[in-house]
Design a protein that fits this description.
Elements lengths: L4 H10 L9 H19 L30 H5 L5 E2 L2 E2 L7
Antiparallel strand pairs: 1-2
Length: about 100
């Protein structure tokens, strides 16, 4: 698969990134390099390799799953700049 200048412009538009016309060929090449790297990764044989979260094996710390008191909305909301009816109040951002 190859990304051309028009496809790079479309991707930039979908990502809401302004890219100047003269920078589109370089962006298309960068996309092609990324896709080439992904194709290389797809060729690697990972049969029998266990997934891991880091390069050094370690066991995640666990805690007891116990019920806590909770129910402290007044204490929690005391830090909020604006709280109404037991909830955090935030400005409307979507019309």
């Amino acid at each position: 698969m190859s990304i051309d200048k028009d496809t790079a412009a479309k991707v930039a538009k979908l990502a809401r990134i302004r890219v100047e016309e003269d920078a589109l060929p370089a962006l298309a090449q960068e996309f092609n390099d990324i896709l080439g790297f992904i194709e290389q990764l797809a060729e690697v044989d990972v049969e029998g390799v266990e997934p891991m979260t880091g390069v050094t094996p370690m066991r995640l710390k666990r805690r007891e799953d116990v019920v806590t008191e909770g129910g402290m909305p007044d204490k929690i909301l005391s830090n909020a700049p604006d709280a109404r009816e037991g909830f955090f109040a935030v400005p409307k951002v979507v019309e």
